[in-house]
Write a structure and sequence with these properties.
107 residues, mainly beta, six-stranded antiparallel barrel, 44% strand
Length: 107
Protein backbone atom coordinates (compact mmCIF):
# COMPACT_ATOMS: atom_id res chain seq x y z
CA UNK A 1 0.00 0.00 0.00
CA UNK A 2 1.41 3.40 -0.95
CA UNK A 3 2.17 6.10 1.60
CA UNK A 4 -0.38 8.82 2.30
CA UNK A 5 0.70 12.29 3.50
CA UNK A 6 -1.22 15.22 4.96
CA UNK A 7 0.26 18.68 4.62
CA UNK A 8 -0.40 22.39 4.89
CA UNK A 9 0.71 24.36 1.85
CA UNK A 10 1.07 27.70 0.13
CA UNK A 11 0.17 27.63 -3.57
CA UNK A 12 2.68 29.60 -5.66
CA UNK A 13 0.92 32.01 -8.06
CA UNK A 14 1.81 32.01 -11.74
CA UNK A 15 3.27 35.52 -11.43
CA UNK A 16 6.00 33.97 -9.24
CA UNK A 17 6.58 30.93 -11.44
CA UNK A 18 3.82 28.65 -10.16
CA UNK A 19 0.67 27.34 -11.83
CA UNK A 20 -1.99 29.58 -13.39
CA UNK A 21 -4.84 27.56 -11.84
CA UNK A 22 -5.77 26.33 -8.38
CA UNK A 23 -4.80 22.92 -7.01
CA UNK A 24 -7.33 20.17 -7.74
CA UNK A 25 -8.06 16.62 -6.64
CA UNK A 26 -6.23 14.18 -8.89
CA UNK A 27 -3.34 16.59 -9.51
CA UNK A 28 -0.07 14.71 -10.03
CA UNK A 29 3.15 16.37 -8.93
CA UNK A 30 6.64 15.43 -7.88
CA UNK A 31 7.38 15.83 -4.17
CA UNK A 32 10.71 17.05 -2.87
CA UNK A 33 11.84 17.26 0.74
CA UNK A 34 13.75 20.48 1.40
CA UNK A 35 16.04 18.75 3.88
CA UNK A 36 16.90 15.82 1.59
CA UNK A 37 17.76 17.51 -1.70
CA UNK A 38 20.64 15.18 -2.57
CA UNK A 39 18.38 12.13 -2.22
CA UNK A 40 15.77 13.78 -4.44
CA UNK A 41 18.33 14.25 -7.20
CA UNK A 42 18.95 10.49 -7.15
CA UNK A 43 15.30 9.39 -7.08
CA UNK A 44 12.25 11.61 -7.65
CA UNK A 45 8.94 10.69 -5.97
CA UNK A 46 5.56 11.31 -7.59
CA UNK A 47 2.31 11.90 -5.70
CA UNK A 48 -1.36 12.29 -6.53
CA UNK A 49 -3.37 14.86 -4.59
CA UNK A 50 -6.50 13.25 -3.11
CA UNK A 51 -8.27 15.83 -0.94
CA UNK A 52 -7.82 19.58 -0.87
CA UNK A 53 -9.16 22.36 1.35
CA UNK A 54 -7.90 25.52 -0.39
CA UNK A 55 -8.50 29.23 0.27
CA UNK A 56 -7.78 31.06 -3.00
CA UNK A 57 -7.79 34.46 -1.27
CA UNK A 58 -4.82 33.50 0.91
CA UNK A 59 -3.34 30.92 -1.50
CA UNK A 60 -3.14 28.48 1.43
CA UNK A 61 -4.66 25.14 2.20
CA UNK A 62 -4.48 21.62 3.55
CA UNK A 63 -4.26 18.54 1.38
CA UNK A 64 -3.77 14.81 1.38
CA UNK A 65 -1.66 13.08 -1.24
CA UNK A 66 -0.60 9.52 -1.94
CA UNK A 67 2.75 8.42 -3.30
CA UNK A 68 2.25 6.70 -6.66
CA UNK A 69 4.91 4.12 -5.84
CA UNK A 70 4.94 1.51 -3.08
CA UNK A 71 8.68 2.08 -2.68
CA UNK A 72 9.22 2.75 1.04
CA UNK A 73 10.51 6.08 2.31
CA UNK A 74 12.85 6.59 5.25
CA UNK A 75 10.72 7.18 8.36
CA UNK A 76 12.44 10.50 9.12
CA UNK A 77 11.04 11.90 5.85
CA UNK A 78 7.49 11.36 7.12
CA UNK A 79 7.90 13.12 10.46
CA UNK A 80 5.61 15.90 11.55
CA UNK A 81 6.96 19.27 10.43
CA UNK A 82 9.09 18.10 7.49
CA UNK A 83 9.16 20.80 4.80
CA UNK A 84 8.22 19.77 1.27
CA UNK A 85 7.85 21.25 -2.19
CA UNK A 86 5.47 20.12 -4.92
CA UNK A 87 6.91 20.39 -8.41
CA UNK A 88 5.82 20.19 -12.03
CA UNK A 89 9.08 19.72 -13.88
CA UNK A 90 11.34 22.48 -12.62
CA UNK A 91 8.46 24.72 -11.43
CA UNK A 92 7.61 24.82 -7.73
CA UNK A 93 3.81 24.75 -7.47
CA UNK A 94 3.46 24.59 -3.69
CA UNK A 95 5.54 24.74 -0.54
CA UNK A 96 4.28 22.85 2.47
CA UNK A 97 4.75 21.16 5.82
CA UNK A 98 3.76 17.59 6.66
CA UNK A 99 1.47 17.20 9.66
CA UNK A 100 -0.05 14.31 11.55
CA UNK A 101 -3.57 13.79 12.90
CA UNK A 102 -2.38 14.83 16.37
CA UNK A 103 -1.32 18.20 14.90
CA UNK A 104 -4.81 19.04 13.52
CA UNK A 105 -6.52 21.88 15.35
CA UNK A 106 -10.33 22.16 15.40
CA UNK A 107 -11.75 25.01 13.36
Amino acid sequence: MSTKLRFNFIWVPSSLGGHNGEPYEGLRTTIRWQKYLNEFLQCARDVQWETIDFDPMGSQGEATCRLTSDEPLPSEWLKNGELIEMLNGYRVLAIGRIFTEADIKPR
